[in-house]
User: What shape does this take?
Amino acid sequence: MHAESTNASCEFCPGQLEQHWFNDPLMRSGSALAIPAVGSLVPGYLLALPLRHVPNASLLPSSERGDFADFVLSVNTCLSAVYSRPVTMFEHGGCASDPLDSSCIAHAHVHLVPGVYDLAGATPGRVEKYRSWADFIDSAPEGPYLACTDAGGTVWKFPDLRQPQFYRQVVAKCLHIADRWDYAVHPEWANIRQTYIDFSSVS
Assistant: This one.
């Protein structure tokens, strides 16, 4: 990575990421990694991050989007095998020019959560449909946006609602822990530790 592709003040960029035990990557490629999510609502809740500092995945250079989409798919496949459940993916797609978007951190990160939560059914507004995450980020949608998958892998894109952690609120409600959606208030360290235990047998 060139210097201009990182941000020294970003908690998801190299240099900052390594400072916390809960950011020890569980999976990595040459240009991306997966870490447990602070605020893991269930064990196995991961974030897939490109190493390049961009506000959302679709703003990666076109030459890097395919590799990142492949990495996200590999994380999804691994999670599904470890937990024997389908995996729901979503992104609060940030925009560098809009500080009021739903993304809490201005570095692209795709959430992968074991389980099915019907996020598309809970999201109001105009919808666009894509066959896969690769097709979605390759379309370079304008941010900010909300994007989520269903159990079949279809990606649904909606206009941003300007509600921080919107999809986390939906997942928490589905899990009957609606008051624990805010990762800053409820970091869920026990679930993060369980995630590392669950992955300890993955070769």
About this structure: The mean pLDDT is 90. Residues 90 and 148 are 4 Å apart (CA to CA). Residues 62-83 form the longest helix (22 residues).
